[in-house]
Amino acid sequence: MSLISDNLQAVLADILASSVAAGRAPDAVSLLAVSKTFAAQAVLDAASAGQRAFGENYLQEALEKILTVQELAPGLVLEWHFIGPIQSNKTRPIAEHFSWVHSVDREKIAQRLSEQRPEHLPPLNICLQVNISREESKSGVLPEDALGVAQKIASLPKLRLRGLMAVPEASHDEEQQRQAFRQLKQLSDTICAAGIALDTLSMGMSGDLHAAIAEGSTMVRIGTAIFGNRHYAK
Length: 234
Ligand SMILES: *Cc1c(COP(=O)(O)O)cnc(C)c1O
Known about the structure:
The chain is α/β, with parallel strands linked by helices. The protein is 44% helix and 16% strand. The protein is built from nine helices and eight strands. The longest helix is centred in the first third of the chain and has 20 residues, at 2-21. The chain binds pyridoxal-5'-phosphate. Pyridoxal-5'-phosphate binds at residues 34, 36, 57, 83, 167, 205-207, 221-225.
């Protein structure tokens, strides 16, 4: 508990320092705590330290965790973000249980999410995932296709297109990290100039949050630096 709380405070201090160093407002960047592979108790520990937004990659694990957290802390209101690969036959529970989806990478998925978003819930917040480093192994639309897909998503009734998300090619070189983030920011500016208002750039993880914030990130997705190293089952 105190470890997660200490880590969380350190990450928030890091985000603040990076924002100020980049000449940005102290509250320009929000923190998404990525709790994948960690138990509901880890989420509750982070929530006790004030964190409210949590990111999950694996649908089954996420649904169980959301339920467990609700049972253990019935009054606690958290904001769940889906950030993992999406199979088109698994969109309904995502539309029903999450507030944000960062990993939309094709029109068909967006269409299904819009159709399946329950009437009583506000529109689902969407980030379009972009394969900014053009890696074959990565999901995401290619940069040249982003505007077209963004226009389609923006027209869907139960979705609210908020911005772009990317996981650039891993690099320890800060200049290389910054270059990929700069490209995503430029793409976002292009889409905004075409008349689609975006307010979110979901970029930056534990290893590259400084570079992401320097290049305009508005939401960093941080797992390891808060919860520790992940141990995958199987
Ligand atoms: C796991 C994951 C993160 C968090 O990564 P860390 O390096 O642990 O901070 C962020 N974004 C996505 C899409 C992820 O899958």
